[in-house]
Design goal:
mainly alpha; 4 helices
Length: 90
């Protein structure tokens, strides 16, 4: 299921059809992916799963900033959480 979804997303981006995807659907997809990622990291009790190299620095920062804004967080809050989840802090 995940492989099929990932492939479909890549096809949509490559075809320039992103505007055809309703914004609420994008929000639901990102929210679900974030929940899956966070739960996976917490349940594994190990290093946070690595994002692969197909995600650019710009894409990563756009999502990071959106997540911070969604929860009214700022860079100081991020620094606190970043140190909390640093490798080896378990």
């Amino acid at each position: 299921m995940v492989a099929q979804l990932s492939e479909r997303i890549e096809e949509t981006v490559r075809a320039g059809e992103v505007a055809d995807v309703p914004r609420p659907d994008v929000t639901a997809l990102v929210s679900g992916a974030v929940k899956l990622y966070a739960t996976s990291a917490e349940e594994a009790e190990s290093d946070v799963p690595v994002i692969d190299a197909t995600v650019s620095t710009t894409e990563a920062m756009v999502v990071a900033c959106a997540l911070l804004r969604a929860h009214n967080l700022n860079p100081f809050d991020l620094a606190l959480w970043f140190s909390r989840t640093a490798r080896g802090s378990h």
